Each structure stands twice: as structure tokens, then as C-alpha cells.
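Table 4 source record.
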Amino acid sequence: MLKNKLLQLLLLGCFLLSLHHGIAQNIGAPIPLEEKVSLQNVLELARDNSLDAYKSKRKYGVNYWQFKSFRSSLLPKIDFHTRPFTFNRALVQRYDSEQNIDVFRQQQNLSSFANISMTQNIRATGTNLFINSSFDRIVNSGNTSIENYSATPIRIGMVQPIMAFNRFKWEKQTEPLKYQKAKQEFIYEQQTINLRTIDLFFHWAMAHKKVTIAQENKDSAKKLFGIGEKRYDLGSIERDDLLNLEMDVYNANTNLTQNLQNLQKAEADLRLYLREAMPTDALPELPEIISDLQINIDKAMALAKANNPDILDLRLRKIEALRNLDKAVKDNRFDLSVSASYGLNQQANSLRDAYGNLLDQQMVSVNFSIPILDWGERRGNIKTARMNKDIADIELQQDADRLQQEIAQKVIDFNLQKDLVTGALRTSEIARESYTITEKRFLSGRVGLLNLTSARKAWQSATEQYIQSLLNYWRLYYKVQELTLYDFLNDRPLWQDFDNVLND
């Protein structure tokens, strides 16, 4: 009994001496300068440098210029068209009244034309108003040369469809809604970038933690194998126990190499996404949980209805379904339109006379067409449009229900996740402490290698589970923020300076 006690004290002394030597070496070694990078740092880098961020800005730019074109279409348009020089020489068919036959005769002329016009659409009624001025000149050459001018200094008119599909009225509803949706989609995509970045960051953090644990396991395995050799020489352990300790050393080396490879890949994926904007010597700094944040489901539902681009898309699709039905009904009924114009014109052999003694030019036209027999084609088109509108209504309701269910589920999961993170953190601390105690008991000979290995695996698993639960916490938070476009941390809506988006 006394011999065993002395042996244990001798081994414990050897362990403490080797530990003191290792600490002394670490104190004397230079400390590498490494910069800690937090989750918020990485999120900011992703929003500024990732290709997803650049793409979202360009997608917003497309919608911005489309809306700008729509607003410009509300204003009058001025067009100028001219054909300054046209020379024509050809044989043309003409009627000879003296012989009462058609003959071919040589014709040669030089003509010029110019027209300037201004048009304006009245969106409420679909009316097209126009005002123009035109000028023609023609010079016929042959046996005699004749020069002729035709001038219309001013002509005012309108074209008014009656009971026809008015696309301008529907554009007034859909285009501003599309632009508002584009703004919300841009902010929404920023949150999608956050979610992608969170996955990459925690993958990197998990890989880094596994390398740290693998390095500790390697050091511990080498230390225990060294102690095991001394015990085996003294006859206190069997050969198979020593072989198991040696096998642990090789397994620990292999595990460390594999985890280093995984760390390099995880860091390379993150750097690629950030376009090499992350510091070279960077260490992940795990974020803390937000201790008292609880999200109210009713508030989240109301914010989603007000901010989520999918809700706007549902409204837009509802309007488009009504527009398509309106178009089908009016395009397959009858056509009625009124055209009218008034102007002044004259023709003469000189430019001066063409603009003098102007004559009235008046035109009124009523156009009407109605199908007599089409074998039900138009009726079928209208029925099809009504059925498509009913299908769209059902799909819209299904999408709205799905979105509400997703928001409610994500909020519930987030509010519960805090307890899971707290429990995982405490489990990790307990597993770490249990491993430390088991290691000491193993060194004193009171437990076997199997207990030590089991305690080490439990500590490693608990540590990984804590990081995973922390990832789930932050992923759920940013998912709720994505669905509601609301910053619950600072209790304010997400905001974007759209004036500077296109300048980046």
C-alpha cells in the first residue's frame, strides 16, 4: 500500500514538473498578434464588399430607372422627324386619257419632308392629345420643272377610345407599388446577406474551436502517453493500456490535421464571400446572446404586413389579376373610338404662298366594330380570364397564410432559443469541469482510460453544441428581422439611404 502511494506521488511530481516547464516556455515565447473579428464586423464587411451586396444594388438600380421612365412617360413628348432629301427616278404606270389606256412614263422628282409633334396621354381616360406642324416640298422634273409646297403650320387633335382597356389607369396603380416593393426587396436582401454571412462566420468559428480542442487533445494525449510509459515501466498499468494511450496520440495528430484542413476551407469560404476584406491574422469572437430580448408575435405580424416585400407582392399580384380580367373583358367585347382634329394648311408653288391664305383642315371619325359570329371564342377568353383570376385569389390567400405561419413559428422559436443557448453554455461549462476532474483522477490512478476518453468526448460535444445553439439564436433573430424589416435590437425600422445606393 505504501509502495503504491509513493509511486503515485512520484508520477504526480513528474507531471507537475513537466507542466511547470511548459508554462515557463510559453511565458518566454513571443505572443502572436492576432486581431479578433466579431460577428458584427463580418456583417458590415459583407454588406459593403460581397458580390451579393453589389448585385442587390444593381437590381435596385434597374427598378429605380424603370420607375423613373414611368414618371417621365406622364409628361408631354416632343418628336421631330424629317426626310430632308429623297430623289426618285423611275418608270411609273399612268393613265393616258387621250388614248384611254395605261402607259409607262418616266418620272423624276426630288422631295423633302419635316414634322414636329407634341403628344400627351391623359391617363384617367386613355385619351391621346396631339399637336403638330409639318412641311412638304416636291420638285418634279421632266419636260417642265414644277416646284410645289404643302404646309400645315398647326394641327390639333385627339384620339379617344370608348369602353376600351386603359393600360394607363392600371400603370398608375402598379408602377409606384413596384418601386416601393423594389425598395423593400433591397432591404430584405441585405438581411439575406446577413443570414449567409452568419452561416459562414459560425462555420469558421466552429472549425476554429475544433482546432483548439484538437490541439488540447493532442497535448493531453502526448502527456498521458508519457506518464503511461513511466507507469508501465513501474508495472502499474498493463501493456494494452499503454498501447491505447499511444494510439490516442496518433488519433489526436490525425484529428488535428483534419480540423486544420477544415479550418482553412471555412476561412477561405468566408474570405471569398467578403472579397478578401477580412484581416489576415483574424480570430473569431463569438457574440453573446441578447439577455432580455423577447419579440411579440402580434407586433411582428403587424410589421411584416407593413414592411415585408412579399406582402407588397401579394397586393401587386391582386391588382395585376384584376387588370388582366379587365383587359380580357374589354378586348373581347366591342371596339368604339372617336378621333378628331383641326388644323390649318395650304399648298402653293412657293414657300411664302404655302404659309399664306391658310385653309381650314377638319376631321372627325367614329370607329365601331362588334363581333357578329365568333363561335364563342371571345366568351371563352373572358371565362378563362375569370378562372385565372379566381386561381390567383386562392394562391394569394395560400401565400399569405404561409407567410403568417412562418413569421409566427420563427418568433416562437427565437423566444425559446435563449433558454437553449443558456442550457448549452452551462452544459459546456459542466463538461469542461468534469473533464478536468476526471483527468486529475486518472493521473492519480482512481479512474481508467475509458472514463477519461468519455469525459473528453462529452466536453467536446457540449462545446460544439453551444456554438451550434448560438448560431441558431442569431440565425433566428436575423430571419425574423428579414421577415419584418425591423431592427428589434434598437426598436426601430430598418432604414436605407437610397440616394447613395446607386453611387456606391
